[in-house]
Amino acid sequence: MTMAPEEIPGKGTFERGVHPAGRKSYAADTPIEVLPTPDKVEVPLLQHTGKPAESVVKPRQEVALGELVGKASGFISASVHATVDGTTQAVSVATLPNARHVQTIPIKSGEQPLAGDALKQDHFGGDWPSSGLEQHDVQRIRDAAADAGIVGLGGAAFPTHVKLSPGEAKIDTLLVNGCECEPYLTSDYRLMLEFPAPVVTGALLAARACGADRIVVAIEDNKPRAADAVRRAAEGTGIEVVEVETRYPMGGERQLTVAVLDREVPTGGLPMHVGVVVLNVSTAAAVARAVLRGKPLTHRVVSVTGRGLKRPANVLAPVGASYASLIEHCGGLTDDAARVVAGGPMMGFAVGDTEAPLTKGIGGVTVLTRDDVRTAEETQCVRCGRCVDVCPLHLVPTKMALAARNKDWEQARRYYLTACCECGCCAYVCPAAIPLVQLMRAGKAEMPPE
Amino acid sequence: MAEAEAKKTESQSRPALEVAPGPHVHHGALTTRRMMLDVIIALAPVLLVSVAVFRLYALKQIVLCVACCVAAEAVFDLMRHRRPKIDNLSAVVTGLILALSLPGTAPWYVAVVGSAAGIGLGKVVFGGLGHNIFNPAMVGRAFVMICFASAMGATAYQDETSAVHAVTQATPLTQLEQTGETTELWRLFVGNTNGSLGETSALACLLGGLYLLIRRSAAWQIPAGVLLATGALAVVQNAMNPGADWTAAHHLLGGALLFGAFYIATDPVSSPLTPMGRFIFGLGIGALVMLLRVFGGYPEGVMFAVLLMNSVTPLINRWTIPRPVGGPVERKT
Ligand code: SF4
Ligand code: SF4
After folding, report:
1. Count of domains in chain A?
2. For residue A326, is it left (φ>0), alpha (ψ between -120 and 50) or beta?
3. Domains in chain B, please, with CATH?
4. Ligand 2 pocket test target in A250, A420, A436 with most atoms within 8 Å of CB
5. What is the pTM of this model?
6. Is the minimum distance from the CB of A346 to ligand 2 under 6 angstroms?
């Protein structure tokens, strides 16, 4: 059962949402392994919210691991770095699973001074101090995060230095998000379990940068071992570790601020408007690495998991590696594999072209079999209201989707179409198999601004 | 195209990958068909009691209505050049509810016309399942009530020459209206009284209703609203007429109230979407039933109450747009 710790104002849960089968067991017990350096990576210049980075390399240029190849263009943008040692090629274009066409810098791998277990140790091993961090200047922490090209690793890929620079807003709490509420995914879990120290150090540094006095690490109560590990690592730092109910989408910023702090992020606003910054655990670790070791974000842990894979695993992989290389490393697809999803099965996008490059925000590759996916054809909405019963934002999905389908923007506004966070709970329960999220996503994109 | 490329670049032979919008997993047990099946399962106790009490009367009505509703659905679908969707079982549910809301004594053509009208006027003219405003079974029943008033009126329920005991009596509500005589509570509870086929046994309705609520195939707010409003108004009415034998408990257990509250009012298509809306809808039905029972010319008002509240469902939906988490104001960032 969820304990609602007395110290936190929230109830440790939020209203509505769904309980999809966790299916974490495919990869939960495999320690993080390192992807053998692929022959080639393709580093997208846009893998975050905001403006694309600008290429600062020429074709056929020798680059070293961690060297800047794309420079952030503006405040809401993020730099990208070479994720292998090698030679650049001419700028190319790739289609990401979310259907965005982005420019990429392909890099052909050369000799790798750092690979295998050494790479893993370089990332997460060694000493991570949890005291004496006051010596790091606030602005320097923000700059280090910006220079390292850190974006939210939990999925939204929002540039982290922006979150750490709240400007006028007064931040009192840093929420470190270790929920990993998507079914199947275990990359944050493995990180917390194996390397809680960089998470703790990163949280302390991030809290310093955004001016938060209080740090709460929230972990779903289906990961008690991870919670214990982080609790031990955080001893004496004042960081609180709370276990929140396992309920999808607990890892959503809006749900988590309610569950932990009993604060509602205003519709159309950000957590900073209620004094909160939310940072994913992997992002926190990346901040620690950037500030203390000056290392940019070049790799991330990805769970490559699901019944459609021969050997599910958690892999430390360079950004820009192809989905195919990850799948191949994990033994390849089984015969009944039907769908490769970039991310988890609730919010992830189906991968059409497995040569597409991995981006910073993707925490998992979920391979589903024919039996796992739904094939029912869409039928009429029977107005059963189940979508209403599960929407964590208390919206009326059927009306919003209908408005989006009919391009009835007045009705779309009346039902707050733009408030939808695309969590997928509504479509998950819809007995008529209506593609509610797809309709809403399209509606949001098409709706003219007021 | 993407697939072909992937094949080119990857040496090992691999299965074809498909692209589809997320979420990629689904709460597998939830389908429209399953919801309808739940209603049918929940109707089982009611069907059993009706056959036990009304014998062949019930059997005839049930078989006729279900067959005609399914046939009507198929025919109308074909006329609109659509693949008949009878496999979602919704026509079966309409047929069962219509049959159970008819008097056993109603002649065969009442069932046939009621089914055709229910499916045709109640559903198809609006564009099929999901688009109808009114509960199709109640549309069918209202239609035959207008067409064949004598076969459907209060006195038509009774046939003193019948071999089936229940049919020889007047229905409890008619009896009350005409002679002031009150039926014992336990008989209303068990169901060996005269009435529309499905309404006589409160016990059967409660059993099936409970199943629907546990399976969440019916929204609990609706029966809760109905029972609350009827119960409260009945207590008020009792207080105003002290000494009346027909108590609030009689109101709750008698007539089609429970059958209506659990099986008719809970039709998802014609009831509101939000929990608050459903509760208001239930309260409205309960209140209307009491008003019709106390002031109306007909002894029984569940059908009218449901149809009336169906007509305001779109309005209720508009009134009860929930406050989104984070408040309704779009904050400019
Ligand atoms: S869950 Fe599906 S069928 Fe039910 S009201 Fe929502 S959109 Fe309609
Ligand atoms: S409407 Fe949007 S926020 Fe609500 S359940 Fe559906 S996807 Fe999630």
Report:
1. 2
2. alpha
3. 32-319 (1.10.3430)
4. A420
5. 0.88
6. no
